TrEMBL record:
One of its GO terms (molecular function) is structural constituent of ribosome. Keywords: Ribonucleoprotein, Ribosomal protein, RNA-binding, rRNA-binding. It comes from Aurantimicrobium minutum. Belongs to the bacterial ribosomal protein bL21 family. InterPro entries: bL21-like, bL21-like_sf, Ribosomal_bL21, Ribosomal_bL21_CS. This is Large ribosomal subunit protein bL21. Part of the 50S ribosomal subunit. Contacts protein L20. The keyword tRNA processing does not apply. GO terms for cellular component: cytoplasm; ribonucleoprotein complex; ribosome. It comes from the Bacteria. Pfam families: Ribosomal_L21p. One of its GO terms (biological process) is translation.
């Protein structure tokens, strides 16, 4: 069982080959592949966590599609002053599939 913990944006995700992950929007190259930096690698019984060994590890992924998350409503209200503010936000996301851990 080989898996890795990769950094994507401000989050970390545990991934294996074939895993589909939704992360913050990333730009892919023309072929539609991206490379994610590994934070931890588990290869059977061996666990790799030092920076020198992880610099050699390549986790590649293929971009499936770009999408947007659910709408979040931000509301502010102050009593007795007439102050009301309403704002919406939709996070831009990318869905990727992990193709290789080497």
């Amino acid at each position: 069982m080989v898996y890795a913990v990769v950094r994507s944006g401000g989050r970390q995700e545990k991934v294996e080959v074939g895993t589909i992950v939704t992360m913050d929007r990333v730009q892919a190259d023309k072929s539609g592949t991206i490379e994610l930096p590994a934070v931890l690698l588990v290869d059977g019984d061996k666990i790799t966590a030092d920076q020198a060994s992880l610099a050699k590890v390549k986790v590649t992924a293929t971009v499936l599609n770009d999408l947007r998350g659910p709408k979040i409503i931000i509301q502010k209200y102050k009593n007795k002053t007439g102050y009301k503010k309403r704002q919406g936000h939709r996070q831009e996301l990318t869905r990727v599939q992990i193709t290789g851990i080497k």
